[in-house]
Specification:
By secondary structure, this protein is of the alpha+beta class. It has three helices and six strands. The protein has a single domain, classed as P-30 Protein (Roll). Keywords: Disulfide bond, Endonuclease, Hydrolase, Nuclease, Secreted.
Length: 132
């Protein structure tokens, strides 16, 4: 996902926190959380097809940008966590528009791959089952 460079790193970090960090998130809360946080396709009322929440504190996730993570494949800014995190994947069901988006949630424990800039997570790339 290309993010325009004119958006500050701090704003991108705040957006990452809003879209992907929710300590205590459960698979049954996808509809409510996606709606309350107004998570849609950027600049539209279109429901976002899928969204992943990391069920951990921002401070723990931020550490993946440093000692709690390592470079992912050959990317210059992607990092993979050294430890798995509890996550909830919310996948859209139906073809509605915000605020009527409906989601099916699935819980898992996965390693997370995030994009970091200046030590802050600014992009959720994917989750991986194992580090091989």
């Amino acid at each position: 996902v290309e993010v325009p460079p004119h958006i500050s790193i701090n704003d991108r970090y705040k957006k990452f926190i809003n879209q992907h960090v929710n300590q205590g998130m459960s698979r049954t809360r996808c509809d409510a959380v996606m709606r309350s946080r107004k998570i849609t396709v950027t600049n539209s009322t279109q429901c976002k097809e899928t969204n992943t929440f990391i069920s951990a504190g921002a401070k723990e996730i931020k550490k993946v940008c440093n000692a709690a993570g390592k470079p992912y494949k050959n990317s210059h800014n992607l990092r993979v966590s050294n430890q798995p995190f509890p996550i909830v994947n919310c996948k859209q069901k139906g073809n509605h528009r915000y605020p009527k988006c409906e989601y099916r949630g699935r819980s898992a424990t996965r390693y997370i791959v995030i994009g970091c800039e200046d030590g802050l997570p600014v992009h959720f790339e994917r989750d991986v089952r194992d580090l091989s």
